[in-house]
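ok trying this again, last paste got cut off
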Amino acid sequence: MSLVCNPGAFWLRRAIWLVIIICLMVWLCLQLKVCVDRLSAGGTVRAWSRRNLVDIPVPAVTVCHGNVFKKSVVLRHQLDGFNWQAWRQQGYRTLNWSTFDGLDNFYRAAAYSWADMVLICTVDGRPCSEIGTFRTSHTLLNGLCTTLNTNVTVGRRMVGGQITLVMREREQLDDFEHSGWTVFLHTQEVHYNDFAFFSGQAVTLKVYGNRMHQMKIFRKITQALPHGSGRGCNASDNSYTGQVRCLGSCLMKMVTAKVVKETSGGGKPCSVPWIAANRYRPGTRSCRSLKELERSAGGSERGVKERDFILWTDSCPCTASCRQDRYHIEQHEKWHVEETSVYLKYPGARAITVGGVDLWISDVEESVTEREAYSFDTFIAEVGGNLGLMLGGSLLTFVEILDCVVASCVSRQRKRAEQRG
């Protein structure tokens, strides 16, 4: 610039340098515009990584019975003229509500406990009862489910899985009346409920009678950006718990709004087992008749389809967790019990309906991390690179120019003040 501004220099040399500077300035402006456009466009990309674990965390195991309720208890409380098939088709309409004291009482008697369903459970050869705790959950779709929670880790296995489950059926069921068992695998911090099922927080395995399953799973952790795609997410440590509480409150408000409308003519709403007791007002009693159940369940006693659940949750202003920690099936094989040695090890299993799961937990953990497609740090780096490449400048150059401009302005003001004085 000093050469271009020097009137004593050769004119052709000054003209050439002026053209070069103008071209570089135009090119710099175009590059800066591209950087600004990319920064304004935003967007995200995902990076995959895998690592091998020495100490493999054991997932929580939730077991639910496919029949939901025991046939013997249902038949004992049915109205005359109804049978098990009628119950499977019409549900609570077939019950004689005067034979039990409220729906909670019926649930306690008819639901399957862990001991009713599981004959053998071992983790790395150790009984589950010695290394874990059990937690029950009332669900709308699967009835009473029991979750095994442990804090142990296991090593890599080449022959045989780390977790063994053998289920049994104690009820006397005819052909085609047994709906098997459903096994859900999820992380320890996820408390199994209808939301965990519908949202895919748990991987599902359906075990039918006299079938053995061998399944290998791996853990996949997805970390999203709070301001990333979709409606955003919550990056706090208790984000998943907060989401569950928010959805519970939101869905309860929807049910309550419908209940208030149904009970506007009189009567108070009653409680149902598949909605947490703390969602009701203190002193709310269990439903004691079909009329009370239909009036207070908001239609949930007839079941909820997955599409309806998605519509419900989408209308709730609840922010999802940025961290999604889930298990995925890597390999799955199954065969008849007669093709295994189960009857040799447990001769008593010949007279009952059994089902088994041999679960492999992979030592490979996969991570998917979402990051900005064009971050502000990248923007600064590219701007600085273009400045250095085109003009040989940097941020310090801009600071120096600003300092020179300020110093020049101050100097002129001083000279004008001196001339006036």
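PB: full thing came through this time. DSSP finds 13 helices and 16 strands in the chain.
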